[in-house]
């Protein structure tokens, strides 16, 4: 599994080979370093903790300094996140070079906070008609319950705090990779404002798993058939020499 941490820089646009405009989100991805390796024997699960966003050691508390020192890292990081994976060691560097153009990824981040909002903006209610006697309730939610059971059911869509939630967007395509500047250009929009921390994980496109299984099965069948033919050729009895000579004469 390929993963990295990044920071949202904003949106831009690029042009493809057909001169079509592609809206992209620019992300400063990495470099990240493996800070800790967790295993099933000691921690109960297998994962890697990676750090991103270098900060001055002056701003780091002593317990955190000890955590980084244990990993033989001179740097200190603002963000620490865990990912499931293998084939990594403590101290390994992760950068954008692990990704390539056209790869499908999922991104997780915290969405923009909108504060306390009404039902029209928060849930898309239509509101009341502007005529036919409506005076003060244009953006009101309407009835929130009946006379029985004399209570409001849980989950009722009402006014409240909007945004500032952890959101995952799947199926986004990497449009460009800039290895020199540690930049990823992802097609489309991602959650959060400028500077939002993003978790980027490579995923397999829907349907590719079944296709890979099918291709693997076909290749195995072809291999077995080829081996069977070779065996058949080896076990075939040789013709007698006299018969061969008689045929030649």
UniProtKB/TrEMBL annotation:
Record's keyword annotation contains Cell wall biogenesis/degradation: no
A GO cellular component annotation in the UniProt record: cytosolic large ribosomal subunit
UniProt entry keywords in alphabetical sequence: Ribonucleoprotein, Ribosomal protein, RNA-binding, rRNA-binding
GO BP term, example: translation
Positions in coiled-coil regions: none
Pfam families, per database record: Ribosomal_L3
Residues making up the signal peptide according to the UniProt record: none
GO terms assigned for molecular function: rRNA binding; structural constituent of ribosome
Region annotation Disordered: where it falls in the sequence: 214-249
Highest taxon, organism lineage: Bacteria
NCBIfam families xref list: L3_bact
Subunit: Part of the 50S ribosomal subunit. Forms a cluster with proteins L14 and L19.
Family note: Belongs to the universal ribosomal protein uL3 family.
PANTHER family reported in the protein's UniProt record: 50S RIBOSOMAL PROTEIN L3, LARGE RIBOSOMAL SUBUNIT PROTEIN UL3C
Reported function: One of the primary rRNA binding proteins, it binds directly near the 3'-end of the 23S rRNA, where it nucleates assembly of the 50S subunit.
This protein's name: Large ribosomal subunit protein uL3
Source organism of the structure: Candidatus Portnoybacteria bacterium CG23_combo_of_CG06-09_8_20_14_all_37_13
Gene expressing this chain: rplC
């Amino acid at each position: 599994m390929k993963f990295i941490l990044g920071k949202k820089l904003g949106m831009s646009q690029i042009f493809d080979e057909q001169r079509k405009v592609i809206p992209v989100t620019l992300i400063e991805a990495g470099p990240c370093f493996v800070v800790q390796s967790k295993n099933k024997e000691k921690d109960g699960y297998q994962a890697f903790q990676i750090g991103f966003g270098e900060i001055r050691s002056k701003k780091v508390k002593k317990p955190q300094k000890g955590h980084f020192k244990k990993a033989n890292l001179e740097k200190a990081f603002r963000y620490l996140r865990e990912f499931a994976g293998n084939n990594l060691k403590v101290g390994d560097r992760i950068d954008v070079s692990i990704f390539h153009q056209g790869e499908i990824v999922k991104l997780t981040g915290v969405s923009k906070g909108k504060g306390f909002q009404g039902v029209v903006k928060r849930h898309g209610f239509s509101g009341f008609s502007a005529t036919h006697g409506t005076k003060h309730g244009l953006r009101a939610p309407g009835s929130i319950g009946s006379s029985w059971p004399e209570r409001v059911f849980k989950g009722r869509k009402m006014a409240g705090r909007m945004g500032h939630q952890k959101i995952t967007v799947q199926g986004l395509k990497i449009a460009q990779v800039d290895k020199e500047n540690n930049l990823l250009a992802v097609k489309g929009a991602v959650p959060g404002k400028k500077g939002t921390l993003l978790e980027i994980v490579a995923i397999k496109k829907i349907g590719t798993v079944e296709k890979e299984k099918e291709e693997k099965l076909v290749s195995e069948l072809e291999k077995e058939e080829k081996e069977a033919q070779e065996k058949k050729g080896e076990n075939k009895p040789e013709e007698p020499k006299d018969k061969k000579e008689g045929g030649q004469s």
